[in-house]
Structures are given as C-alpha cells and as structure tokens.
Specification:
The structure is a homodimer. In chain A, α7 links the parallel β8 and β9. Chain A has a single domain, classed as Nitrilase/N-carbamoyl-D-aminoacid amidohydrolase, CATH 3.60.110.10. The N terminus of chain A is likely disordered. By secondary structure, chain A is α/β, with parallel strands linked by helices. Chain A has a 6-stranded mixed beta sheet with strand order 5-4-3-2-1-14. A 6-stranded mixed beta sheet of chain A has the order 6-7-8-9-12-13, with helices on one face. Chain A has a two-stranded antiparallel ribbon with strand order 10-11. Chains A and B meet through α1, β6, α6, α7 and α8 of A and α1, β6, α6, α7 and α8 of B.
Chain lengths: 326, 326
C-alpha cells in the first residue's frame, strides 16, 4: 500500500479560483396591514432599494406577495380577492417607482406579487429584474400550500389552493447581469426538487420570498419549528446544490396575524452568512463570492460524476407516497 | 371576509395521534487500526449491543465498513483489497457473534461491510437485521465518492470508485419488526434523492453509517464544514421527508488519518435529538416516537396533495448540470 502524506502546492493551487463577487441583499418587509395602500408599500420597497445600494448591493430580494397583506389568510369570494389583491400588469402605474429606482440605482431585484393574467388565470408569481430594470424571468409558484375549503375552526385560513392556480412555467434559471439565477416562492423552499431542477441547469443562486405564519393551523406544531425548519431547508439545499440562497420574509403582525422573520442569505457551504434580527423592514447584505459554489459543484456534488438517475425514477414516477418497490 | 380566531378542540384533537415508540440507538465506532483483527472489532460491536439493549434499544445502527479500517484511503491492487478487507458471506464465522447477540438480546441492527459476491462483484454494502437475527434487507452503496486513479500528491486516497461497483439494488425500504425502514451509506446522505425515493415508499426511518475524513483531499475545505454539512444534510432530509434519521460514524484517528464523529439521531422535526460527543466507541439512544413523522407527512409534506412531478423531470432526465431549459 502506498500512501503519500504531503499536500503539495499543486493540489493546493486547485484552490485558487478567481473570486467572482456579487453584492447580494435581502429586503425583509415588516407587516403590511389590510388597509395599507400599495403606494405606501412601494415607498417602503424603494427606501430599502436605496439603503441596499448604499451598502454595495447589485441585486435585492423582496418577499412573496410583497405589495399587499398576506390575503390568503382570509376567506372571501375569488372575485373579491382578484379585485383587491391581484396585479393586472407589471410594472403598473403603482409599481413603476420600483422599476424607476432599479434603473436609477443600477440595482436588479426579485419581487413577488399576485398575478392575474389577461385571460383570467391567477398565480402566485415572482419576477427577476436586471440592473436595467428589464424583467428577465418570471416564475409562478408550483408548491401551493394550505387548502381550498373554508376551515371556520382555524384561527385564520391558508387559502393558496383556492386563490391561485399551480404554476405553469416550471423551475427555470435566468442569466441576469452575468449571474445564473433561479427563483422560487415560499413553500417551494422546503422541497428539494425545487433547487435540484435549477441546479441541473447550472444555477449559481436561488432567490425567494416568503410569508410564513407563526402558527400552523393544521396541527399543534411547536412554534420554534416554524423558524428552524425554514433555516435548515435553506441551508441544506444551498449546500447540496453548491448554490447561494437568499430568502426574504414578510413578517411581524399583520392585523393580529403573526409571521416569522429570519430572512437569510446562505452560502454554498450551508452556512447562514446574513440573517435579519427584527420583524420590521430590514436590509441584510453580503458580498457573495460566487466561486465558492464551484468547489462543491466540481467535487462532492459533481453531478455528472456521481448522480445515478436510474435509481431516482420514483421521484418522477410517483406523486404520493406508496408501497415499497419490489 | 370571514376569519375565525379560536382554535377549537376539534382541530386540536387532530393532534392526538397514538404514540408509537421505537428504542433507537446508534453505536459509533472509534478508530479501527489497519492491524486490528476483525475478531477484536466484532467484540467491540457486541459490547455496544449489550449497552444499547440495557438502555432500551430495539434497533442499533453500526457504521459503514464497520469491520475493518477505512481501507479506500490506501492505494493497492484490487486483488489485495479483496483478500484483506471484503466479506465473502454474511454472517461468517467471524461475524456470527453479532447475529448471536441480536437473537439473544432481541435487538435488530444495521451493519456496513465490504461485500464480494460469489460471482466476484465488489460492493460497499449494508444490511438490516431484525430482532430475530434475520437479514431482512440489503443495500449496496449508489453514490460512491472519491476517485479511481492514484493521487500521489494527496495525503491519502479516497478510492471507493476503484474498489467498489455502483450499487445495483436501488433505494428500497424494508418492514422490520413493524417499522418501515430504509437505509443508505455515507455519501448517500448528502443527496436528497436518496431519502426522497425511500420516503415515496413510505419510509418512517432511514439509517446509515459513514466514514468521513476530516480533511478534504480535493480542495482546501475549511475543516469545520466536514461536520456542519454532515449534520444539516441529516436534519433537512429528515424534516423534508417526515422521517427519523439515525447515522453512525466510524471516527477518530485510524493510523494517523482522522475522521469526524458527530453520530446523530434526527427527528422528523429536523432536530438533532441525540449526538455523540467522543471520537471513540459510544452509544447514543432515544425513545423515538414514530407518530411525529405522520404530522409532517400528512400536512406540509403530504406528497399526494402537494408534489408536482411534471415539473421535476430534469431530475431523472439529466445526470450532470447543463444549460437552462427553454
């Protein structure tokens, strides 16, 4: 047996990838009350764009359904929901200041909103906008949580399955100012398939927004788990795909309904490198070195070398859990 | 809008699943030196079986390649490796005491070993054995890490791709003394596909063993990541599948080559509920309530309700990372 013991300079030099940095920031949004106007929310978003820019940000992540209160907690007719909470166009006169600030600040962003298409289909949607204020990608939420029926005994509703259709655009990635970027929304972040499909398209970053109630209406889940399961989902999926993950909460108490904060930026090492402390409007930011992900994608998670899709078939062949395979 | 605020007794009662407990233990194994005999290792394993039983264990998890030193770190001819480190049968005269203790103690177990089949194929293998000392399931490692060529500049080798064939049995689950149990080995634990395929067969627990060098020979990875990435992989995959995960290290310094410890038992909440502290032989144990996983599998991870395999196709259609889909 032959076993050399010295790590040579040759093997260490494999470590010297050129840094490739991105100013990456998350704009956590405190509560948006039912009666707050979209104009007031847009002003808060634009203020955080200016702060992020002043701290070196080149890309800023806003929450899911950022323009209004988290309305799926309320039971109402679909028509009423669409009239009050959905966007018919993006940008629109009311959201145009966000795009104007993007252009002025040369700052890209991710934004979540409720989308009603011209042919009347409702989606929980997000967009990626580049530093020239151009929409380069759109995503429509695939993993809709909650229920579609009225649960009068629950302290609030979670009616995403009532108000939204399942997204029809898949999990795509978009080259955005030199960075290959994927996105998802809220509950998607708990599903490993979400990140894997984007990593298989060579994503370097996945960005997302969320609204996560502090109380689980379906069973008496210990409250602290709402935050810990959020964080380990981001951490493990960043690591297991060698990508950066940036996640923006809408949080705090919206008309008495509390949602978790803990917006976070996670490195491809699985480590949380920035995390919000408040449950209010708060910008967190890092100078993200994209080259860090390459070490993981070239070695432990070199998909071409190590993945064995012939043994993964059940992932696409089955939807629900079933019996053992023979 | 109609929004009830009281959590009724009706909805709380959905929380009262009958407990279904399993005495679950992990037998971490300290170093096995190159010149240690298999007999001496088996004696250590049997001693830990007695300790686990005395602490209420009904099932005990041993490490990967538990019977010898972690030989893939050494460059040698395949013939030499097979002669010195592989098992031609299981049980064999030398491993029979483990099975005898299983029967005597009414204690099931998971054991990893190098398997040479009767037709000469080499696998990194594990078995699940029930409380009657019967082998109920076998697994052959699918995600073989490392390399097959000689890396003379590296401080040691990681030659699993040289000494082992890729497993040919898939990721299966086995009903074992009333518990639906899956298994994997070492590097498999970092791949979300591993757990998902077993969760789609209604696994309640996944057990595994590992040998993880403290030094990454491929790039200058910060040492602490070797442990943190191990733990977040267990945690997130336990949570995201609503399963218990129990992982046993072989650890400490084998002839100067150090491996991480941190054997752990993780609940379906994603929380580490037991963790080894030493880098020696050490038993950790919990009384695992299997019903906890059901809350997650019925609600947030109700696969039938929420999964969308039509958007996961790339996971089985692609092996390596490629270009964006249109």
């Amino acid at each position: 047996m032959n076993n050399e013991r010295t790590l040579t300079e040759a093997s260490i030099s494999a470590n010297s990838k050129p840094k490739r940095t991105l100013g990456l920031a998350v704009a956590q949004l405190g509560p948006v009350q039912l009666n707050d106007t979209r104009e007031s929310v847009v002003a808060r978003l634009v203020a955080m764009m200016r702060e992020a820019k002043s701290r070196g940000a080149e890309f800023l992540v806003f929450p899911e359904l950022a323009l209004t209160t988290f309305f799926p907690r309320y039971w109402m007719a679909e028509d009423e929901a669409r009239r009050r909470f959905f966007e018919l166009s993006m940008p629109s006169p009311v959201t145009e200041p966000i795009f104007r600030a993007s252009l002025e600040l040369h700052l890209g962003f991710y934004l979540g909103y409720a989308e009603l298409t011209s042919d009347g289909r409702p989606f929980n949607t997000s967009i990626i906008v580049n530093r020239n204020a151009e929409i380069v990608g759109k995503y429509r939420k695939i993993h809709l949580p909650g229920h579609s029926d009225h649960m009068p005994a629950a302290p609030f509703q979670h009616l995403e399955k009532k108000y939204f259709s399942v997204g029809d655009l898949g999990f795509r990635v978009f080259d955005t100012d030199g960075v290959r970027m994927g996105m998802c929304i809220c509950n998607d972040r708990r599903w490993p398939e979400t990140y894997r499909v984007m990593a298989l398209q060579s994503a370097e970053i996945v960005v997302l927004g969320y609204n996560t109630p502090s109380v689980n209406i379906h069973w008496n889940e210990p409250t602290h788990l709402r935050t810990t399961t959020h964080l380990i989902s981001l951490q493990a999926n960043a690591y297991q795909n060698g990508i950066w993950v940036a996640a923006a909460a809408k949080c705090g108490s919206e008309d008495g309904h509390h949602m978790i904060g803990s917006s976070a930026i996670v490195a491809p090492t699985g480590e949380i490198v920035a995390r919000s402390l408040s449950e209010e409007d708060e910008v967190i930011s890092v100078k993200a070195d994209l080259s860090i992900g390459e070490y993981f994608r070239e070695h432990v998670f070199n998909f071409a070398k190590h993945r064995r899709p012939e043994h993964y078939r059940l992932i696409t062949e089955r939807t629900g859990a079933g019996e053992p395979i023979a």
